[in-house]
Design a protein that fits this description.
- It is built from 11 helices and 14 strands.
- By secondary structure, it is an alpha+beta fold.
- The strands form 4 sheets. A 5-stranded antiparallel beta sheet has the order 3-2-7-6-5. It has a 5-stranded mixed beta sheet with strand order 9-11-12-14-13, covered by helices on one side.
- Helix 2 runs antiparallel to helix 3 and helix 8 packs parallel to helix 11.
């Protein structure tokens, strides 16, 4: 398989850092891109203008009410759907200006000459309220205009006597409806080289509050102010924002350390282990020093287990190949030598018919041994194949075993009807090798006793044949180990039995016994 192209790829640490940095700057993106903080400052300004206008509107309404008997003329009648419900105790006006949603209007139009002057009573009211609005303006920095029912300015620093009725928000207020707008702020003079933070956001908030007397418009409190600048506000609250920034940075670092501890470091160690395993370092199969997370622990256990199993398989193949080569060498050498002597005898006529028959018998014997070995190799290959939903009952397997060894006395008892997780063919291979070994060692009776242990089925297979000597007890499951080589033994029977049991999640072991030989088999329950 070709290696992937050598191109730059970000490391996991870099990806985590980029993600954390992005999350950390998201609040700033919200502040400056979506202008969330600007909107908050604008609505704060509108709320202040509403409060100030409402106070002035109450005073103005009292002055108008006191002069109604002197012939003071009120303005347009307010529509019933505009007036608040008389039963409501509170009728708040909530600030709702939005810099991103509302239309930002052009600069406020200039005042126009009034079509007719304001009534003298309104002029007197304006003169009375002028000191109030000037003192208020000193503190709030807001601009105030008090208009009569026709939109003529009767109080304010400028434009007194002129009309503002043509302005959109004023026109709505003259019909009894509160209106606020955002307008571009264009200075009359070019700004200085260093632009003052106090000049705000570059917009004006205009608020037109109608004054209602007897369900008619008695005037309008028209106010304006530039919202505070976000940078100015951040500078004023710099200590809090520095602490908030430090908290975000420290939180990001803490999250990064957690990611490094739980993901990056274990992953790097696992990568190092993989490289060491590839170089043949058997110490690399040891567990990791730190796993980080449950999922990574499972991944590490699975990977190291798979690598260790592959290494064992590789060792097994190497050892098995060496043993197989050694076992095949003897019969092949014997066959070759006998064939060469027979060939020479045909040329020189130096061998008697009796000697020729002996050499031919040796060839046939060695050929039979090779066939037996080939059969055992096929059984071993089948034994190590993975099981696929296999199931059978021991009673059926034992019936086939008796048919295969009719000359042997085979006794069976216990939970023989309990299904096991193995095919009858493979279970028969295991028991056949045990029976064959028993017959080769002069056993007269083979006993099988099954015990149900819920998740497994324990089967004890014993015989009354020759016992296994102490030096050989640890070697009987080794491939090609046999004490009956002269009788055609291949030394692979028990190795095949163990391979079948292991591939199906079972086991086989030699039990200590005083008489004969006994094996304990653990079959997985189906």
């Amino acid at each position: 398989m070709s290696a992937p192209p050598d191109k730059w790829r970000p490391s996991l640490a870099l990806v985590i850092f980029a993600v954390l940095a992005t999350v950390a700057v998201l609040p700033l993106v919200g502040l400056f891109f979506f202008r969330l903080y600007d909107n908050q400052l604008i609505r704060q300004t509108q709320a202040e203008l509403i409060a100030q206008s409402r106070v002035l509107a109450t005073i103005y309404a009292q002055e108008v009410t006191a002069r109604l008997d002197s012939g003071l003329t009120l303005g347009a009648e307010v529509a019933p759907n505009v007036l608040p419900d008389p039963g409501d105790q509170f009728t708040p006006i909530r600030p709702a200006l939005d810099l991103t949603a509302d239309d930002l209007l052009r600069r406020r139009p200039d005042a126009l000459p009034a079509s007719r002057p304001a009534q003298q009573a309104y002029v007197e009211i304006g003169a009375k309220l002028t000191p109030i609005i000037r003192e208020t303006q000193k503190v709030t920095l807001a601009g105030f205009r008090i208009l009569d029912p026709q939109g003529v300015v009767i109080a304010g620093r400028q434009e007194v006597g002129q009309s503002l009725a043509h302005i959109e928000e004023v026109g709505d207020a003259l019909h009894g409806q509160y209106r606020a707008t955002l307008r571009n702020r264009v200075p009359d003079k070019p700004p200085p080289p260093i632009y003052s933070f106090s000049r705000g956001l570059g917009v004006h908030v205009f608020s037109a509050m109608p004054v209602i007397v007897n369900n008619r418009v008695a005037g309008v409190i028209y106010t304006t102010r530039t919202p505070s600048n976000i940078f100015d506000h951040l500078y004023q609250e710099r200590a809090k924002f520095v602490l908030a920034g430090l908290a975000v940075i420290l939180g990001t670092i803490a999250i990064g350390l957690v990611f490094s501890r739980t993901i990056t470091l274990p992953m790097r160690e696992l990568i190092d282990r993989a490289a060491r395993i590839g170089r043949g370092d058997r110490e690399a199969f040891q567990p990791l020093r730190h796993y980080g997370t449950r999922e990574f622990a499972q991944l590490s256990h699975s990977f190291l287990g798979m690598a260790e199993q592959l290494a064992r398989r590789s060792d097994h193949i190497a050892t098995f190949s060496a043993h197989l080569t050694h076992e095949l060498k003897s019969p092949l050498t014997s066959i070759k030598g006998a064939a060469e002597l027979l060939q020479d005898s045909f040329q020189d006529k130096g061998l008697t018919p009796s000697e020729q028959r002996t050499f031919i018998a040796n060839i046939l014997s060695d050929t039979k041994r090779l066939e037996a070995m080939a059969q055992r190799l096929r059984e071993l290959a089948r034994a190590e194949s993975l099981p696929q939903n296999e199931c059978t009952e021991l009673a059926r397997v034992i019936a086939d075993l008796r048919s295969r060894f009719p000359e042997s006395a085979i006794e069976a008892s216990g939970s023989l009807d309990r299904p096991i997780g193995m095919s009858s063919e493979k279970a028969l291979i295991v028991l056949s090798h045990l029976a064959d070994n028993a017959m080769r060692h002069k056993a007269g009776t083979i006993r099988l006793e099954a015990l149900d242990e819920r998740t497994t089925l324990k089967l004890t297979v014993s015989n009354d044949g020759e016992p296994i000597s102490a030096p050989n007890r640890d070697r009987i499951f080794d491939a090609f180990f046999t004490t009956r080589r002269d009788q055609g033994g291949t030394g692979m029977g028990l190795a095949i039995a163990r391979a079948v049991m292991a591939s199906h999640g079972g086991s086989i072991r030699l039990k200590p016994t005083d008489d004969g030989v006994a094996f304990e088999l653990q079959f997985p329950a189906a």
